[in-house]
Amino acid sequence: MTETMDYDDFLHKYSHVFRRYPLKLVHGIPLMEPIADQWDPIENFQARPDDLVISTYPKAGTTWMQEIVDLIQTRGDLEKAKRAPIHVRIPFLEICSPPPVPSGVDKLVNAPSPRVIKTHLPFQLIPKTFWENNCKMIYVARNAKDNLVSYYFFDQMNLTQPDPGSWEEYLKKFMEGKVPWGSWYDHVRRYWDEKDNHRILYVFYEDMKKDLAREVHRVKDFLEVDLPEDIVQKIVHEASFEIMKDNPMANYETVPSVIFDKSKSIFMRKGKVGDWKNYFTVAQREAFDADYQQKMKGTSLHFREE
Ligand code: A3P
Question: Any idea where the Sulfotransferase domain is (predicted)?
Answer without folding.
Answer: 49-299
